[in-house]
Fold these 3 entries.
Entry 1:
Amino acid sequence: MQFQCFTGYLSLFIVFACQFGILTSEIIQPKCRDSEAPFSPAGEIQFCEAYADFGCCTHEQDEAVRIYVESEWTKLESVDSNLLPYCYDYLKNLTCLQCSPYSFGMFFNEVVNGEIKFAEHPKLCDELVTDITNACPEIARHFEVGANTIGDERADDSDGSCYPIIESEKPTGELDGVCLKELAGGLRNPLALVHAGDKSDRLFIVEHIGVIRIMEKGGELRDEPFIDLQEKVFTTDTPGDERGLLSLAFHPKFSTNGYFYVYYSRVASGEFDHRSVVSRFTVHATNTNKADLSSEMVILEINQPGATENGGQLVFGKDGYLYITVGYGGADDEMAADKSNLLGSILRIDVDTEDDDEPYQIPIDNPFVNVVGARPEIYAYGFHNPWRCSVDPGSLPDGTIFCGDVGDNIAEEINVIHKGSYYGWYHREGHLCRLNDEEKEMCDNLDDMHNDDQLPIHFYEHTPETGNVNAVVGGFVYRGCQSPNLKGFYIYADYILGKLWYLTQNSSGQWINHDLSFGNKDVCNYGYQGPWDKHHFILAFGEDEQGEVYMMTTTSVSNTDPTGTIYQIVDPARRTDPSTCSQIDSITIGEEEFPVLSAASKCTMTYALMAVSVFSQFFSSF
Ligand SMILES: *[C@@H]1O[C@H](CO)[C@@H](O)[C@H](O)[C@H]1NC(C)=O
Ligand SMILES: *[C@@H]1O[C@H](CO)[C@@H](O)[C@H](O)[C@H]1NC(C)=O
């Protein structure tokens, strides 16, 4: 029986094969038996040298293979003392196949109720089976190959998943499209995913409607919300309503002070549509999974003239100050360039020191503190709708702040935020002037008008395929451990197009834009997803404490519809040696806890500990 999704086959069989994912091309992709990408081992591979550069075994696993092979060889020798040295090579080489970057395919057996079942031994191609059976019958018996088992369908050469045929192409490990790993669903417009910086590995998900949920490591959502602000938050279930709970930022010292900050819309009186509120809340004294609704301290309130373009990002800079993004408010185009109001600006405040009048202070080096008529909170201005921003912790010394500035009707921008700069709204979108001919001079001569005029690092014009409606979703610079091919990429998206890109800087400092495509079904499978088959809106990105990047989407943008999903972005072609990607401060051996002091000691102690657990786990899968 052949497992191929091939049009000539009976359709019933194709359905079966596709449903269970038994598609040859999927199986013969480089992949490890944990369904994840191969890697370059960080520690030395002394035994299975064939996989020293790229494969599926860590240093500890390689050691485990060596010990296993040596003990098996001793056992075999005691049965047949005439075994040839050549046969030892067979035992070694075939045992080492679990370190092959193709180990998934060689050991893949079947999928039962969505669970992948692996065979005990690798699939060997017919020619090898003949040779091994003739030359080293003991080894053949050990691997259960031979006359009695060749008839088994797994031993069919034709699907290309047997050794050595499967290894005929050397995997490049180069980035060729990312996959998505679904972690949680059923969320109502998830707009932010934030970690608390408290080493708890919890992720806090902001639901537009006014609720913050906790997602545990591994993707499990806690039933009880962290905080439910629905009685305070003003929004409607109209698809596309921009008002609601928009963001969350944990104080850098959250572990000790329990403070976190939210940005939400509240009902306003009189001429205003609503107010944007920035408030501080405090986590419950004894239950860190619960925040105290009565602990609200309002930090800042901004009257909003319209229902749209509210900005709404909160983020702590590496300088410890709170940055707040505010859209131009959807009413008066002139507001963003006018520094006497907070609209269309990015604000920077010090929330650690209270002033006589305000629950915050102005950092003394804010750019407009001494400018008459300007609000001293303003750090940069001239924005249309700086909707999602992030700090790149990997860039020195201050941590670059990137913002996607959602445009009006011409272009979408990605900006790097500089102190005191003017970002062009409403004269420009991208590099494009939006004024009529008479006014154009204002635009062309912007340098004369604004000395601090700042162009985006990248912009794209609105696309006909979405009816010229677009909205950029600012993302993150990938600083995670798991996907080394993505390191340093600023990943962002378009909400309507459902498309991802990344920006990198070349050696002369120019920003270069690249498509970040999704891998096809052959590589994004078994727990991963590739391109979407139905229309999804990309709402936002998030980052965990290890720097892994997540994406939030929804199929319905009404904030009462629980169609929001959280995905982790992963590279199916290459990952980092998994033994080096854990962030641990201490380890427990027996009853005792040992602090892990430096990166080097962390590695040694982790290895020591892992060698034990890996060894037992590894062999339970033989
Ligand atoms: C074992 O692997 C080595 C290195 O790849 C190769 O040179 C040798 O021919 C192999 N031996 C057998 C018996 O498969
Ligand atoms: C960087 O990119 C710019 C714009 O594409 C290009 O003109 C420049 O030559 C590049 N510099 C290098 C060193 O590649």
Entry 2:
Amino acid sequence: MGLSRRVFIKTGLAGAALGACGALPPVARWLRRSDAATDPQERVAYTYHPPNCGGRCSFKCTARDGKLVKIEANEWPDKRHSLICLRGLSELERVYSPDRIKTPLKRAGERGEGKFVPISWDEALTTIANKLKELKDKYGGKSIYLKASSGVEHPMFSLGAMLGVQMTNAGGIDIGISGGLNQVTGVGLFGPMNNEVTDWVNSKTILMMGCNFLETAMTDAQFFYDAKEAGAKIISIDPSYSTTTTRCDQWISLRPGTDTALILALINQVFVNKWYNEEYLRKNSTAPFLIRADDKKLLKAGDKFLVMDKNTGSFQPYDTPGIQPELEGDFSADGVKLQTVFAALREHTKGNTPAWASKITEVPEKVIADLAKQYATAGPAVVTWGWGGPDKWYHADSMGRAAGILAALTGNIGRIGGGVGACNHHLPGYFAPFKGWPLPKDKGFGPAKPEMPAPDFPYKPNSVRAVIIQGNALNQWQANANKTAAWLKKLDLVVVVDIFQNDSVNYADIVLPTCTNFEMEYDSYNLQIRRNHIMTMQKVIDPLYESKTDFQIEKELAAKLGLDQYLPKTPEDLNRARLNDPAPPLRGITVETLKANRYIQRLNAPWEPFRSNMNQVYATPTKKIELYSEKLLSFNAGFPSYEEPQEASPSNPLFKKYPLQFSQAHTRYRAHSSFSNARWILQIIREPKVEMNPRDAQKRGLKNGDLVEVFNDRGKFQARYQATPEMRPGSIRVSEGWWSKYFAAGNLQNVTNSALNPRGYPLIHGPVIPFNDTLVEVKKVGGAN
Ligand SMILES: Nc1nc2c(c(=O)[nH]1)N[C@H]1C(S)=C(S)[C@@H](COP(=O)(O)OP(=O)(O)OC[C@H]3O[C@@H](n4cnc5c(=O)[nH]c(N)nc54)[C@H](O)[C@@H]3O)O[C@H]1N2
Ligand SMILES: Nc1nc2c(c(=O)[nH]1)N[C@H]1C(S)=C(S)[C@@H](COP(=O)(O)OP(=O)(O)OC[C@H]3O[C@@H](n4cnc5c(=O)[nH]c(N)nc54)[C@H](O)[C@@H]3O)O[C@H]1N2
Ligand code: SF4
Ligand SMILES: [Mo]
């Protein structure tokens, strides 16, 4: 770590950042001991890194005199993954950050003020337990709401189940496009691509639709370059010139929120030019199913969908062996006209020409036509996205449906080198779901049925009176923060468990300090599967200050409620129970084998890129690719259509007042709000920046570095303007996650859109929070410093 040390001490900026954040001495003190390489107190231990950048890198750590002094990449069985990034290395400092919560705390000011006094663990846990018991007795378990941020590896769900609370660690985020794609292919949570990124070397075309892969899937960057070297044409479809776009073969800048129109035009071109794969559609999709002209439902006999069989000239159940389903033709049944899904889809997209899409997306017509040809005719092709761009829009589900249909028409699902879906977090891969800890069946334990999707809680009447939050979910998992704050102020109890004093902590009545992944009392804590490997955490150093692991906190809180006898004694017991599972990928893997193999092992899986749906069986009700959705007929959406963004559209009257679309892309400098306070990273980027094209800035009389206010009717925040020619004019960006204390005033979440699309409720994971479907205006409030 010589390099980091030198950078740390030499850089003038560091002094400024550190001055604002707290004392330097403890860090310098232990780093100075780097000459003591042969110190008998040195210990090597292995852990993995949980922040939700998706990497889940495995670390080899060195502790000296009980202090963490060195972090390196651990060696993975598949050596391509033996990686680490600067955020990971920065943990040497962040673990000892002055922002660490050192003891349990009790609120001393108003909720939101962030003023606390230290209390003992006993007082903290007794206060929480008494209140939970009172609420459960009076109002039932559903009056308690438990939620964890991503990257929290031990959500207290066993305790939650015993109390019968409403709980979740998902909802409203990263599920917009996949909610639609699920309708087509049956894909699960987050809508991963069918094929692992290591399969991209077999692709001829990769459409990255709003995916800053080289920044947001850093540990997979090599597979992007492998694909490029193997000859894939990688096309970035992104309103702005992202880091990833700089390395793509082509950049198509579109108006934000209009991806569905672009894809519909590609579908139109596939039909016009007959680039579809008839045989594939006949066999593997609902293309031959028949739509009734009267109620738009699919023709059925009993519970079986019917198709017209060419061989017999009669309607037959779609899964009858040996039939030859018709893709087109004039049919009727009982006097009702019928149209195949295939023909109806062609008709539905007839008007979605490149000229039509060009007006909406602001992409030239010829570019759209050429894109369609490249995608449909060059060979195996991928349509992929992250979750930070087009997912965070009110109508995101339509994009997922349209993309699924495009991939299906061209036979790109269940194909080597093909695929459709999200590619971040190295999804998909070989996997084994871990079961929860088995609680006794005769005690009536079990979580309450959630009253509403998670993002609704602050805004709609509900039974919740107490929230227990692990992480920063109150700030990160809700838009329109002023409304969230108003809700929090009405509650009987707010508990936050975190390592650092983040924005959610500021609202807590009781704060409980937890440990980082380096600190714990146990030698096998948590389990994680990523990139076809399984890993667990070894203790590297003792818990700092008075912090405890979430496991320990759950146990001790359960003890206060007389429930701890039902929980595992140690996390190692929990891991043993999870690994005692017949899932083939886990065969031969035990806590002991993990320990003997540097705490990481490859799953018992082929050394081949993971590819789903190769057998052309889908997790849909018909087991086929479903091009038409009866479920969404009540929304007049049997097929997906383009709709203008709910808020960020020039057709919105609000646009006159707030003409800038606000995007909050993810950044290499943090994982969401994690690393906001990493002082080594703060040397590079000290504060949030309002990134804006200089053309837009000029209109507002802004000079680089001016202090500006970003505002709309929901709220406002202040930060410095950074001239960013890479931004598409008409859009501004502040990367998500910054803690409020780094803004000159407010927080970006004060302005974000919290409207939820009614069409999202019947979808598998509910409606998505349209963070990017937000309009704002920007004005100068101070000069450059
Ligand atoms: N370093 C780092 N890596 C991360 C994370 C992190 O915080 N830090 N977070 C992880 C998580 S949980 C997530 S969800 C992913 C997110 O991963 P990505 O989706 O790659 O993240 P973003 O950079 O937010 O968005 C990608 C791109 O979408 C573009 N975009 C914005 N609006 C639109 C639009 O309407 N249409 C199109 N086509 N493009 C648009 C943006 O300009 C941006 O370049 O990253 C994961 N990886
Ligand atoms: N406006 C806007 N908001 C967004 C987004 C956006 O694009 N725009 N992106 C969204 C996306 S895609 C995502 S995935 C979410 C991510 O948001 P979150 O899921 O909230 O992730 P983080 O911000 O990284 O917060 C993780 C918190 O957990 C704490 N923590 C870490 N380890 C532990 C542990 O072991 N125990 C406990 N108790 N705490 C721990 C960390 O200190 C940190 O405070 O943000 C979303 N919010
Ligand atoms: S922050 Fe992400 S990429 Fe960096 S070391 Fe940690 S897990 Fe790996
Ligand atoms: Mo995410």
Entry 3:
Amino acid sequence: MNIKNLVKNYKLPHPVYVTQPTLPDLGEFKIYLEEVWESKWLTNSGKFHQVLENKLNSYLGSENCSLFCNGTMALLLALKALDLTEGEVITTPFTFPATLHVLSWNNLTPVFCDINEKTFNIDADQIEKHITEKTKAILPVHVFGYPCDVEKISELAEKHQLKVVYDAAHAFGVKLNNRPVTDWGDLSMLSFHATKHFNTLEGGALITKSPELKKKIDLLKNFGIADEENVVFPGINGKMNELQAAYGILQLEMVDNEVEKRKTITELYRENLKDVPGIGLSIDNPMVEHNYSSFPILVNEKEFGENRSTLYEELKKFNVFSRKYFYPLCSDYPCYSHLPSARKENLSIAKKVSESVLCLPLYGNLALEILDQISFIIKKIYNNRHG
Ligand SMILES: *Cc1c(COP(=O)(O)O)cnc(C)c1O
């Protein structure tokens, strides 16, 4: 059968995107909105802001959560809060552009380190060779919510006196050996963007163990205003407003259920796809309490019969809109490709993963029949190539 006939028979009735937010009940949100309207307190650490910070601390097992208007601003200020104003920061090319851009905005030079083929995270065994006298920090990313090699990274940081800031944008609620993954490093950034499984429309947070650092962060995100007559340093506006926070409180009540549903979907995908030649699944580490933020597969062209990009295009014809996260690598953007560490030889695993990865639709409200059909379509495409 050619692909046209397959499409005719198996095209999904509606477009299915890689993610979709699960929204709180509008009636419940309206009650909170009425309270905001009544109080006329719209932002600047209002009631809902304080409630959400406290609730997140309990949920995440942290003590010093600081809310932000978005994750990128949080990460930008994490580096400022640690006085990282010049020098080199070792990071991964396999991430969202924001990870790199916050370095540029802080006048820091990114140094790309290759990734681990199994976890897609920075390869902790290759970090040390990139350390020079200019190195100030390590900025790893818990890609797709899989924890980095946090122990090894802490060891290196201690040995070489480096700061560690985690981009934990995907790692909301993830635990490693029963410990919140945000326990490691000087600071961790969480993103609450609409596409993340816990969202506040736009939003983010920094998590730290240090109450002093939290104080500094709270000043930084509010223009450095200590009190009515004292502005202590050049801060900026990074605050989360009351509507975002009120929405976040309702989201938090739903998040366990969302993760549970994503777990069911992930297990079914794994079962459906495990025997399809050329479709590689991510590792399933029993020491990790996962949040099922994404469902990445690796397409091996030789075995599957077509490459990742062709599969991506073909799935679109069936109304399945997967995403090539993360392609291209950040080291291939024109703003970073000139860096010595952006050389292909330095990043061979990252290049390989980036050219074969595909994230399939995954969200709590994805119907199991649809997910079965997506798996079935992938099998049909394989069979079609091996007719
Ligand atoms: C989403 C994301 C960000 C940016 O977060 P925003 O809240 O959208 O600013 C940063 N890093 C990674 C890895 C992300 O996925």
